[in-house]
Amino acid sequence: MMNKAFLILSIIALLHGGHTAKILGVFEFNGKSHFQMYEKMMKGLSERGHEVHVLNHFPQKKPLPNYFDIDVSGSVPNVLDNFTIDLVRTWDTKTMLSFIWDFTRTQCEVVLKHPNAQKLLKSTEKYDLIIMESFGSECTIALAHKFKVPLVAMVSSVALPWTHHRIGNPDHPAYIPSYFISYGSQMSFIERFWNTLYYITINPANYYFNEIPTNELSKRIYGHDIPPIGEIAKNTSLILVNSHFSISGPRPVVPGFVEVGGLHIEEPKALPKDIQKFMDESEHGVVYFSLGSLIQVQTLAPEKLKALMDAFAALPERVLMKYTGDTLPGKPSNVMTGKWLPQLDILSHPKTRLFISHGGLMGTLEAVYAGVPIVGIPLFADQELNIKRCVLQGFAVRILYDDMTKESFLSAIRTLLDVRAKYQEIYSANAKKTSFQFRDRPHTALETAVYWIEYVIRHRGAPHLRSAGADLPTYQYLLLDVISVLVLGVVSFLYLTYIVIRSVLRLLLGGKKRNKSKRQ
Ligand SMILES: *[C@@H]1O[C@H](CO)[C@@H](O)[C@H](O)[C@H]1NC(C)=O
Ligand SMILES: *[C@@H]1O[C@H](CO)[C@@H](O)[C@H](O)[C@H]1NC(C)=O
User: Fold this and answer.
1) Which atom, in ligand 1's list, is nearest to the CA of 81?
2) Which of 67, 244, 291, 338 is most exposed by smallest CB count within 10 Å?
């Protein structure tokens, strides 16, 4: 059976005219939602006939042809369904940055001590390409240098502020809101001011708080002659980002920066029988509730959970709810819970009318794909930004955790669902419109990503994709030298003009004075 699949794959690969490649994927961060995207990518490449070796925390349950796990699970604690609401509510921007910079680095050092990681570090395997996550600490980027292979970076969110520089991608604070600031594309003066301040400070901060400590770590792990990670990062051939202009807003990009928003999304599959029945038999449709793969809903403050239950009980719709607790206190009869639910398949069911979500990017993109309106309760990281985009596109309502009451929930849900209200049609139409814009592409996100990865392999790192902007020092990139000369020129010209006019006036007036004194 497996040999047959292998044979078919090999034939497909041959038909591609292709040389199949040996590709190393390195995903040392143990975020499950991040890995959803990378796993789909690596599987897609293995289905194309490439041999992929994937360092990750989520090994395949069944072996796949051409796909080989470098299993580092167990090296660090699993964080799935592990966070309390009180914990994530303390996560402000400062905490987030320290998580992204410090936590990912300290954790990486532990992950790389795993025997399987150690084997990879010492391996003499010949790879054709390396694909790795770019998130916080680039503690594994030295592998691209060690194996002397072209480097592809993947970002599971919209671009982070430090995503752009390495390939010279333009970033502009006048209309592109920072990942860490949840503004829309049209910013007021105050918003542009703060966005610009972020733009100016965050990359130097990333250098001092992230790159420098990671360079030290890098030397400890890979030896003293390893180049600084900033230098290795400059060799990045391609960056695949989980954004799409239909939802993230249009932005200028260099050819090596490719938007593959929704790459993790697969064709909807058949639902489990009980869920299918529950949904099919709902007279008024279904509301789907999930706060994602990290947060335990049972840790919501009791009054918040009660508000939610009271609101659900008042709905004619049925509610499907992701809930990992043992019992759900006050569970109304129209609510069905599951510890894990097939989210995209539920969102794609025709009876699904609404998604109540924390605004994690993966789920948000799935709702966009399915054309389902959202009630967003953003809690941390990019969730505020994601929900903001959906609100601006006119298919979402945001509720702050502090404002969660039965009334606020019902009001938000009714706004989106009540057919008697005019709003309902607008929200639903906007969700469908955005869905159409999101899906209408020349190729699927996966096909696009595969194309560009194979392009990089075909062109041996494709150095011709690199923008010259990537090599300019900041003062040249921002034209500070040219602007200085221009300003100096204008100032000198004005000053000279002033001197000349003053001398002429003096001459004239002085002459008059002299004439006057002569006459006297
Ligand atoms: C999360 O996981 C860690 C490590 O396994 C454990 O110590 C902690 O108690 C867990 N937290 C929760 C809220 O379950
Ligand atoms: C960048 O890539 C080139 C070409 O593959 C290689 O010679 C060089 O060593 C790489 N630089 C670093 C810092 O890894």
Assistant:
1) 14
2) 338
Q: Across the chain, what does the average pLDDT equal?
A: 93
CATH superfamily entry for domain 2-261+442-471? Glycogen Phosphorylase B; (3.40.50.2000)
C-alpha distances in Å from residue 132, one per residue of 128, 361, 372, 457: 14, 19, 32, 15
Ligand 1 in contact with 77 (CB < 6 A)? Answer: yes
d(CA 330, CA 324): 15
Lowest mean pLDDT among 87-91, 131-135, 234-238, 489-493: 87-91
Evaluate if residue 258 carries a pLDDT over 90. yes
Share of the chain above pLDDT 90, in %: 85
Which 3 state secondary structure label does DSSP give 377? Answer: coil
In this structure, the chain runs to a length of: 520
pLDDT at 364: 97
Q: Has residue 10 got a pLDDT over 90?
A: no
The angle subtended at Cα 316 by Cα 314 and Cα 317, nearest 5°, is 110
| Nearest alpha-carbon partner for 415 in 430, 401, 426 | 426
Of 41, 68, 72, 67, the C-alpha closest to 56 is 72
**Average pLDDT of span 152-180:** 94
What type of residue is 479?
A: L
Q: How far is the CA of 145 from the centre of ligand 2 (A)?
A: 6
* CA count, 13 A, side-chain hemisphere, 120: 27
CB-CB contact of 117 with 111 (8 Å): yes
In which band, very low, low, confident or very high, does the pLDDT at 1 lie, cut at 50, 70 and 90?
A: very low
Q: Is the CB of 156 under 6 A from ligand 2?
A: no
- Asked if the domains 2-261+442-471 and 273-439 are classified in one and the same CATH topology, the answer is yes
Compute the average pLDDT of residues 250-255: 96
In this structure, the number of other CB atoms found within 10 A of the CB of residue 126 comes to 9
Task: Output the CA 84–ligand 1 centroid distance in Å.
Answer: 10
Contact indicator for 40, 143 with CB cutoff of 8 Å: no
* Closest ligand by atom to 325 CA: 1
Model pLDDT for residues 323-358, shown as the tens digit of each residue: 999 999 999 999 999 999 999 999 999 999 999 999
- The residue among 157, 191, 156 whose CA lies nearest residue 174 is 191
User: How is the chain split into domains, by residue range?
Assistant: 2-261+442-471, 273-439, 482-506
Ligand nearest to the CA of 130: 2
Is 154 within 8 Å of 38 (Cβ atoms)? yes
Query: For 395-422, what is the mean pLDDT?
Result: 89
Decide whether any atom of ligand 1 lies within 6 Å of the 84 Cβ.
yes
- Cβ(364)–Cβ(387) below 8 Å: yes
Q: Is 201 in the pocket of ligand 1 (CB under 6 A)?
A: no
